[in-house]
């Protein structure tokens, strides 16, 4: 591995940009809010559809609806041009189902689903460019989309990956670092309370290093949450200035 | 307007001793937190503690509810149903256009099986309808015009310009063009005389 990739500094003091665009990117009325997120080199487009009632007429979905809560339905997909090699990904394949399930679990922890009984909230995420940290980019984008849509949540959900390189914990891994065989830990955090929504780790890690790794990931998540917070407030001010007159 | 405080989900607003939680907030460990992005609003409700709530700047738009009378525009027709865009709920215009469907059997109350959508609506007609269901996943509201006061209010004749004019209702099932005097079939609404403008 060349030295440029494995730069030993926590949260990468060099430019790890996190660009966010919120707001109405779609003409489709069914989409309540969209958000485009660029986290280092992963880009993704995200849309939250309107919450809709699971009616008795739709076959099969009556069984999916819960009488006291909303059901959160997540769908994760990758564009064919997102990775280095152009690859057609079938819709129901294992990786995307697993990722959809993780997203669903993460957001069920954060969204106040008790306010919408017998309804369904759809979250559709599409990765436009994948360079590691797919799950964390999805979670951050979905948080923004939900916040923009006005769906009540306990807190933001911020996610980041972390890994170990030569006894130094690194945050926000890129694709080369993730697939290099080292440990990669993905953490989804509710920043204000410090509650962990989802924690996922690949490969083996000695348990002495676990605390340091989680600490690095949590610090990174809190940094992300500050960025998201700033973007949301700015967007809110822009929107309110427009509608105030 | 006085500058109100912005808040984001998860922000701690105050404790339960100061205020009562309203919409857009939730309780945790004796404190009130915001659950929406928006402005914090404190309302004094008499002797009790003030109610604190979070309002979004964009007005929560009026959604058509079951039983509401809506004004819609027909976009396409089909032997089985007519598709419409819902423009007004009651007398408030909507920001977005919702989609609705008027099924063949919901066009009128009598002789439902003998209804022909082509003789009841045409694309471009303005129709008064009532919501019977919020609809399915495709979020098409289900509407009905099976009442005397519901149906086509404004329709244009088939004639091309310059004869094309707004038709005048003759009976509950026919309208006539004032220029060409051609009669066309529609399911006409019986609008109360005081609502008719000259």
UniProtKB/TrEMBL annotation, chain A:
SUPFAM superfamilies: Ribonuclease PH domain 2-like, Ribosomal protein S5 domain 2-like
Exoribonuclease phosphorolytic domain ranges (all copies): 68-152, 155-219
GO terms for MF: RNA binding
Gene3D superfamilies for the chain: GHMP Kinase, N-terminal domain
UniProt superkingdom: Eukaryota
Keyword Cytoplasm appears in the UniProt entry: yes
Keywords: Cytoplasm, Exosome
Record's GO cellular component terms: cytoplasmic exosome (RNase complex); nuclear exosome (RNase complex); nucleolus
Localisation per UniProt entry: Cytoplasm; Nucleus, Nucleolus
Keyword Aminoacyl-tRNA synthetase appears in the UniProt entry: no
Principal localisation: cytoplasm
Gene Ontology biological process terms in this record: nuclear mRNA surveillance; poly(A)-dependent snoRNA 3'-end processing; rRNA catabolic process; U4 snRNA 3'-end processing
Role according to the record: Non-catalytic component of the RNA exosome complex which has 3'->5' exoribonuclease activity and participates in a multitude of cellular RNA processing and degradation events.
Subunit architecture: Component of the RNA exosome complex.
Family: Belongs to the RNase PH family.
Name of the protein in question: Putative exosome complex component RRP41
Originating species: Cyprinus carpio carpio
TrEMBL record, chain B:
BP GO terms, sorted: rRNA processing
Protein location: Cytoplasm; Nucleus, Nucleolus
GO molecular function: RNA binding
A Pfam family it matches: ECR1_N
Similarity field: Belongs to the CSL4 family.
Residue ranges occupied by any S1 motif domain in the UniProt entry: 65-146
Matches recorded under CDD domains: S1_CSL4 (cd05791)
SUPFAM superfamilies for the chain: Nucleic acid-binding proteins, Ribosomal L27 protein-like
PANTHER family, A to Z: 3'-5' EXORIBONUCLEASE CSL4-RELATED, EXOSOME COMPLEX COMPONENT CSL4
Subunit structure: Component of the RNA exosome core complex (Exo-9), composed of EXOSC1, EXOSC2, EXOSC3, EXOSC4, EXOSC5, EXOSC6, EXOSC7, EXOSC8 and EXOSC9; within the complex interacts with EXOSC6. The catalytically inactive RNA exosome core complex (Exo-9) associates with the catalytic subunit EXOSC10/RRP6. Exo-9 may associate with DIS3 to form the nucleolar exosome complex, or DIS3L to form the cytoplasmic exosome complex. Exo-9 is formed by a hexameric base ring consisting of the heterodimers EXOSC4-EXOSC9, EXOSC5-EXOSC8 and EXOSC6-EXOSC7, and a cap ring consisting of EXOSC1, EXOSC2 and EXOSC3.
GO CC, alphabetical: cytoplasm; nuclear exosome (RNase complex); nucleolus
Keywords: Cytoplasm, Exosome, Nucleus, Phosphoprotein, RNA-binding, rRNA processing
Annotated protein name in UniProt: Exosome complex component CSL4
Keyword rRNA processing: yes
The organism's place on the tree of life at top rank: Eukaryota
Presence of keyword Calcium: no
């Amino acid at each position: 591995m060349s030295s440029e990739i494995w730069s030993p500094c926590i949260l990468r003091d060099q430019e790890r940009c996190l660009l966010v665009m919120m707001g109405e990117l779609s003409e489709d009325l069914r989409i309540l809010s969209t958000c485009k997120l660029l986290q280092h080199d992963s880009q993704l487009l995200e849309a939250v559809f309107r919450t809709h009632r699971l009616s008795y007429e739709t076959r099969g979905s009556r069984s999916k609806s819960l009488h006291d809560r909303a059901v959160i339905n997540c769908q994760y997909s990758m564009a064919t041009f997102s990775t280095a090699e152009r690859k057609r990904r079938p819709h129901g394949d294992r990786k995307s189902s697993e990722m959809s399930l993780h997203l669903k679990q993460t957001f069920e922890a954060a969204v106040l689903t008790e306010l919408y009984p017998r309804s369904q909230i759809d979250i559709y995420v599409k990765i436009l460019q994948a360079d590691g940290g797919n799950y964390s980019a999805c979670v951050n984008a979905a948080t923004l989309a939900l916040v923009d849509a006005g769906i009540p949540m306990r807190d933001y959900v911020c996610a980041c990956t972390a890994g170990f390189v030569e006894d130094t914990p690194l945050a926000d891994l890129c694709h080369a670092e993730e697939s290099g065989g080292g440990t990669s830990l993905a953490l989804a955090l509710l920043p204000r309370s410090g509650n962990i929504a989802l924690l996922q780790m690949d490969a083996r890690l000695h348990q002495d290093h676990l605390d340091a790794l989680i600490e690095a990931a949590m610090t990174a998540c809190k940094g992300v949450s500050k960025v998201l917070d700033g973007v949301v407030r700015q967007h809110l001010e822009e929107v309110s200035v427009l509608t105030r007159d | 307007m006085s500058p109100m405080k912005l808040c984001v989900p998860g922000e701690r607003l105050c404790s339960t001793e100061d205020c009562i939680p309203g919409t857009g907030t939730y309780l945790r460990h004796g404190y009130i937190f915001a659950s929406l992005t928006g402005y914090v609003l404190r309302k004094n409700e008499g002797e009790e503690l003030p109610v604190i709530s979070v309002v979004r700047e964009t007005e929560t738009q009026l959604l058509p509810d079951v039983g509401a009378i809506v004004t819609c525009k027909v976009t396409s027709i089909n032997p089985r149903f007519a598709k419409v865009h819902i423009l007004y709920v009651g007398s408030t215009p909507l920001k977005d256009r919702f989609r609705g469907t008027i099924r063949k059997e919901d066009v009128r109350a009598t002789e439902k099986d003998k209804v022909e959508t082509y003789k009841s609506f045409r694309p471009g007609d303005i129709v008064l309808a009532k919501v019977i269901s919020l609809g399915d996943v495709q979020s098409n509201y289900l509407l009905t015009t099976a009442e005397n006061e519901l149906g086509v209010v404004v329709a244009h004749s088939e004639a091309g310009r310059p004869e094309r004019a707004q038709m005048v209702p003759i009976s509950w099932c026919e309208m006539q063009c004032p220029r060409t005097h051609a009669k066309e079939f529609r399911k006409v609404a019986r609008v109360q005389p005081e609502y008719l403008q000259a």
